[in-house]
Amino acid sequence: MLRALTTGFVMLVLASPTSAQEGKAFELGVDGMIAYRATTPSSTTVTLPVGRMRVGYFLAPNFSFEPSLSYNSSDGNGSHASRTTIGVSIVPQFATMGNAKVYARPFVDYNFVTSTVDNRRITSRSSSVGAGIGVRVPLANRLMWRLEAAYANSTGESQFMGLIGLSFFTN
After folding, report:
1. What domains does the chain contain, in order, with CATH numbers?
2. What is the pLDDT of residues 128-140, one digit of tens each?
3. Does 131 or 2 have the greater pLDDT score?
């Protein structure tokens, strides 16, 4: 399953050669995250330095479409769990603060979770919707930090997230 998702993500990244030829920019990025699940039982998850890959396709100078992919795995006490998340978002930039660029990011994520406990395999699928607000801060030519606070909700589950990322821009 992960191989199919990764292949699909790579194909999506490479699917638009005409945009690159027309001079439209792409944002290639990775994000680390600290997330707090506010629903009982509550939990805190840390995925640093990289928990998510993303590619932003700029449809206009201040507006991009951004698919993302993340994979997390954990083992312990005879059990195993993995979570694959495919997401899509739009990222309108709406203000500048000096050299920094402020953006909003409404998103939809699709989650596929597999757990193995006592040799029993359990799978689940869910989707979540959310929104974030963040800032891109220049680091070097075509390289920016990306800092974001976000909230996501799936049926019966609320999550607050802080993301820190690094973005490379092609143009």
Report:
1. 2-15+28-169 (2.40.160.20)
2. 999 999 999 999 9
3. 131
